[in-house]
Amino acid sequence: MLPSRIIIKNMFGLQFLTPLFLAVGAAAASLPLIIHLLNRERARRLVFSTIRFIKMSHQANVQRHRLKQLLLLLMRILILALLGLAFARPFFADTPATTGGTGGVRNIVIILDTSYSMGYLDTFDQAKKAAIELADDLQPSDTSALIFTNNKAKVVKPLNGEHRQIQTVLTGARLTNHTTDYLDAIQSADEILGEANIGAKQIYFVSDLQRIGWESFVDTDKLSPDVEIAFIDVSAKEPVNLAITGVSVPQVVLNEQKPAQVVVRVQNFGEQAFEGLPVQLFIDDNNVGTTTLDIEPNDVMDVLFSVHFRTEKIHTGYAALPDDHLEIDDKRYFRLQSLKSIKVHCVNGEPGRRDYESETFFLETALQPGVQIVPIDLTQSRQLSNASEISQYDVIILANVEKLTGLEIQSLRTFVGAGGGLIITAGDRMNLEAYRSTLGAGEEPLMPCNFVQPVGDALNHDRFSVLAMLDYNHPIFQPFKEPNHGDFGKGRFYRYLQAVPLKGAAVLASFDDGSPALFEKVYGTGRVLCFTSTIDREWTDLPIHGVYLPFLYEAIKYLALKRTAEKPDYRIGDTVELGGYQLPPGTEIATFNPMGEETRTEITESGGIIYDATEHPGIYSAHISGKQPRYFVVNPDTIESNLTARDSEELTSMLAGSEKAVATQAVTTEMITKYHGEVEKNQGMWWYLMLGVFLLAVGEMFIANRI
Predict the structure, then answer these.
(1) How far is it, in rounded angstroms, from Cα 446 to Cα 418?
(2) What is the CATH number of domain 570-635?
(3) Which of 502, 507, 493 has its CA nearest to residue 537?
(4) From CA 316, how far away is CA 619, in angstroms rounded?
(5) N or C: which end of the chain has fewer CB within 10 A?
(6) Taking the C-alpha atoms of 481, 482, 483 and 488 in order, what is their torsion angle to the nearest 10 degrees?
């Protein structure tokens, strides 16, 4: 025997979800008739004298009264019958067994591409129109879902029968500035349709079918066998698109005699050649240069701009092409900082009686203005506490300093944590235990290493070590990578401090016996370098070799430039982390996007902010009272600028399931019950029946009071 919720069907396709109530309703509808028959009075016939006129008058009243009673009886029967019919939950549908398992219903997922390539001409408007037309064709018995996709899929409407919601959402759909990756959307649609037990399963993909969006697919990424897909291709035929795909600019520019070089890369993604194409460079909203180029189809060209900087400040700018049919990639933004010089302060731990006996003699000589490779402003003191506010410096050097006070250590931690550079060089004046217990202690030590003990004899020049391992991929040593660009192996080291690395340290150079010579550590937003030998000739003869001066400059420049540089270029959707705020946690920072919209974020325990509202390309600024604003730029990923599309038939074949869906499925009782429950819910006929019951009840009361 089938459960009571199994549906019975008549010849007109009318079915009932709970047919038991039909019997209850029929029984209830018969009650008014039974009561009427039982209570009907039979009139007794009496013979009177002539009453013809009275009889004629009374007969008309009796007929009207009887008609009203019959009308009331009919209304009461209908009320109870409709009430039972409503509780039986009627609906119209075919039996699944007669329609190959689909039951005449469709389960549809519409996918709308919102990536920025859809902004080419009116492509996105065409796509929205096509998607709305698909929604208009949906029947009440169908179910539908809607997905928006760019590089991620977003289910904006789950699978149900509320089709009007799709039209509302599609009308308000907006283009994004994200790239394309269709895999997530296809997989999400397939999973959604997997929840539908009965009915045809169809995906309608409305997109420009950009080739780049299919690159993450592999051979195993197939649709389920019973899922069909149809592509609505709205791509432009023979699209023409030019884009600025890169701007190479130094993060920090030193105000030297020679101008800074800015390289703008232009790429032609179409089949049309361009002659005399203007490329403009803007810095601080001023046009600093315009040049023209000729570019062939599918070609890449670089344009060089030379720019002089006279002020010391952070600059923002962009390179621009004339607007075309896809405007988002016609500009590319950048930021840089111009400095008059790198400010270095050196603490001399062993001044010496004569200049050449000073620990910093060779350092000072190398950094003299007459021989400078880059402009460096060097100041010195014998104690760090004698220096003025150290935040004004880019790099601090501790040269053979015995030890530091607690206040000096805290100042150094703050300085480096905020982005400053620190160089520590060894020597015989150093109190190794003091360094270990202060700079090398704690959960986050400032030192990249702890000094253990001296190795070697500074007076015996017959025994020495040499530098045998250098990380030539590191920015400090990259200039020496090529042959004849400096030989560190010529320097002799007679004595050095044996050291062990601490948390977060990297070894950049080692001696021939494997002992580390140069350590680096990131601390906050700054960096620390630790050299295990001296910076003068007391323990080594490196200062008299040709690599000493450029090595010193590269190390100082590396630390100084790291101090000033945020990440040079973020992409749409990236999370931005700005660190180095020396302010209490919870302090609010106001960040403005290129549209002028403000977002307030709070400084974290680590002294930074996290900002993730990077949905627009352009220049962003973070502001706090009493501080200079900080700038960062966000650019679109120009991998999306290539508008080449895939063939829809090729894609259909690629996504087809490994097995063809069976035409007729084995339909279970549970599947039928679930399917018809969804159909009945979508049609909602019982609401109309209950409305009829209400109207009849009101009419019944009105007529009953008139009798």
Answers:
(1) 13
(2) 2.60.40.10
(3) 493
(4) 7
(5) N
(6) -20
β 252-254/242-248 pair status: unpaired
How many CA atoms lie less than 13 Å away from 289 in the CB half-sphere?
17
Q: Which of 371, 391, 555, 367 is nearest to 379 (CA)?
A: 367
DSSP string, 542-556: GGGSTTHHHHHHHHH
Q: Compute how many other C-beta atoms are within 10 angstroms of the C-beta atom of residue 264.
A: 27
> CA 671, 672, 675 angle in degrees (round to 5)?
85
Helix/strand/coil for 237: coil
CB distance 266 to 281 below 8 Å:
no
User: What's the residue count for the chain?
Assistant: 707
- Chain-centroid distance, C-alpha 693: 54
Q: Estimate to the nearest angstrom the gap between the alpha carbon of 537 and the chain centroid.
A: 53
For the record, the structure tokens of 483 come out as 């042959």
Residue type, 61: N
Architecture of domain 242-339: Sandwich (2.60)
CB of 526 closer than 8 Å to CB of 416: yes
Joined together, the tokens standing for residue 707 give 């009798």
β-pairing, 227-233 with 200-207?
parallel
Instruction: Using CA atoms of 691, 696, 697, 700 in order, give the dihedral in degrees to the nearest 10.
Output: 170
* Percent of the chain topping pLDDT 70: 83
User: What's the pLDDT at 370?
Assistant: 56
Asked if the domains at 102-238+644-663 and 242-339 fall in one CATH topology, the answer is no
Q: 464, 545 in Cβ contact below 8 A?
A: no
Domain residue limits, the chain: 14-41+48-96+682-704, 102-238+644-663, 242-339, 342-564, 570-635
Which residues is 392 bridged to in the sheet? Answer: none
pLDDT higher than threshold 80 for residue 37: no
The CA-atom distances, in angstroms, between 669 and each of 132, 525, 673, 674 are: 35, 65, 6, 9
What is the per-residue pLDDT across 100-143, written as a single tens digit (0 to 9) for each? Answer: 444 567 899 999 999 999 999 999 999 999 999 999 999 888 89
Phi-psi region of 459 (alpha: psi -120 to 50; beta: other; left: phi over 0): alpha
CATH code, 342-564: 3.40.50.880
Indicate the Cα dihedral angle 317, 322, 328, 334, nearest 10°.
-10
The pTM is what? Answer: 0.68
Residue 310 is given by DSSP the state -
Q: Which residues, including other chains, have CB under 8 Å from residue 170's CB and lie 6 or more apart?
A: 112, 128, 131, 132, 135, 146
Question: What is residue 606's predicted lDDT score, i.e. its pLDDT?
Answer: 75
**∠ CA(7), CA(11), CA(12), 5° rounding?**
90
- Nearest of 198, 17, 168 to residue 684 by alpha carbon: 17
Look at 25-34, 190-199, 405-414, 648-657 and tell me which has the smallest mean pLDDT.
25-34
Q: Return the structure tokens found at 150.
A: 């760019």
The topology (CATH level 3) of 102-238+644-663 is: Rossmann fold (3.40.50)
- Between CA 707 and CA 705 the distance in angstroms is 6
- Judged against a pLDDT cut of 60, whether residue 603 lies above it is answered with yes
Cβ 297 vs Cβ 272: under 8 Å: yes
Q: Enter the tokens of residue 115.
A: 């990536």
Counting Cα atoms < 13 Å in the Cβ hemisphere of 223 gives 23
Give the confidence band of 63 by pLDDT, cuts at 50, 70, 90. low
Beta bridge partners of 286: 283
